[in-house]
Amino acid sequence: MTLQVIGINEAEQAKQKAIYSYNIIDLTKLPLPFENKFNPHPLNPIRVTSMCDVLLSEGFHVFAQENRIMILIGPTSVNPSCIMMDPYGEPKLLVLNNLCTLKVLLIIGGQHCQEAIIYIKKEYQKKLDNVLAAIEKKKSRWSHLKS
């Protein structure tokens, strides 16, 4: 009863007990596609834009509670070398076991965050491409002047 009064319910406790590793994953290069059966709502563009604004202004804090995406995966599908129980330690990339037969990674939440990160990465890649093109243009001009 006391735990319910302070906002900790049995489902949340069970979820915390089920965690066997904290890992990072590149949301733009997933080892397997994400599937969210628990929240199949379509992406809300306004929420994605808002998430982009927050990530760009505050930064992305890898192990912050609000940035976590829970992946429902059994320990036998994960390479033992990447298992880490310290949420504040040096992050390890999620590596699937060679014998993993999964076709998708079942997740809870995270679609808007993933979409925001993909959008930000594309926008920064466009800016980088423009800078590189400008540098090449200046190099070309200099080579003509030298000759």
Topology readout:
Elements: H1 2-5, H2 10-18, E1 34-35, H3 45-58, E2 70-72, E3 105-108, H4 111-146
Parallel strand pairs: 1-3
Antiparallel strand pairs: 2-3
Helix pairs in contact: 3-4
Number of helices: 4
Write down the Rg: 21 Å
Query: What is the multimeric organization of the chains shown?
Result: single chain
Number of domain modules: 1
Largest sheet: number of strands, sense, barrel closure: 3 strands, mixed
- Characterize the overall form: elongated
Strand content: 5-15%
Q: What this model shows, in words?
A:
- This protein is mostly helical and 147 residues long.
- The chain contains 4 helices and 3 strands; from the N terminus they run ααβαββα.
- The protein has helices at 2-5, 10-18, 45-58, 111-146, and strands spanning 34-35, 70-72, 105-108.
- α3 (45-58) packs across α4.
